[in-house]
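Mods, move this if it's the wrong board.
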Amino acid sequence: MERYRKNVYCDWEFLESLMSKLGDYPNFDNSFLGNNEVAICIKELLLSSDVKLFLNVSKDFYDSFLSEIDNKRKKAARKGKDPQLTDFEKLVREIDLKQQNNELHLHHNASKVHFDDSLLNDSYLNSLFFSCESKEICKKVMEDYGVIVINTENMNNFKPLIFDQGVALRKDEVSCWNKCLEMKNMIPCNSLVIVDNYILNETDKIEENLTSIFDVLIPQKIDGRIHFHIAIFTTLCNDRGIPYNSKSRLELVHNILCKIRPGLHFTISIIKCSKDKFHDRTIITNNLYIGCGGGFDLFKKGKSQKTTTISFFNPFLNFYTIWSRKAYSNLISDAIKVFNNTSMFDESKMNDSFPSFVIGEKQNRLLTQST
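Not the wrong board. Structure tokens:
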């Protein structure tokens, strides 16, 4: 299976504006990136092999633009001079060279992505957008569809995303997930995957921890036609291997969601799997990676049960955590494999002692490999 790569839709005009905003800036190995940190991180992302880059121009237009650049270079060479290329032309040429060397996954999309009902497609809902639309339109699209839409006006609002916003906790420290994962500008999302072997073990800890996690991560409102997708990968059994009642666990999660987000349309998948399928405890959304060594059943009566650390960042814009995109990709790939190879729970053929099954609705846009 091809490794997971995020779909990134980028307006041609955004690229021009981005390079105009950047001008001259330090190389990526410079420890100080100045006031253009977000712009530099975006440029680095667009040139990486970790995404599938969709430009809203036709192949003919793109080739014609490259031809003009090549003509400038040839004319300068005949005169023994360096070509006088704009920063934007240099960027497009770098994109082309990386594509030729199979270091980039570039696609030409002649039509612009319209921020309307066409976004209801799961592939778009699991994408990242760099747009030339106004910041007001970008804000509305993020609220309605749970996706990140960045333009050169709102760019600096996303500065927290280029850093790990995680925390360190000591055992018995008073806290909760709302506090640990809180950000001034919460990151939009429309889907969520939890990987934790023990998250559904103790009912009191389920209510305390999942209520807080869902409350801080799931948006207050989203377009009513979108179902928020939640998948939980866990063992559904205690340390002695005695299984829990999967139906009651599903009902408990369902009730928590109905309580904190009564108007939300959602689908829940609980995937029972063996302990050896996953080791790390991780939560991902379509825009976030959260890791916690102590697990997501960490809190009991408002106190941390372990001394641990929590990582919390956007893996695509994050410039300083160099392993972030690979970690996100690895988890998606492993989760897809388990999800696709696990059968739905069927009471006529199995019971809770079966080693693996899916209960709920087997649907999550994060676990559908994008094309």
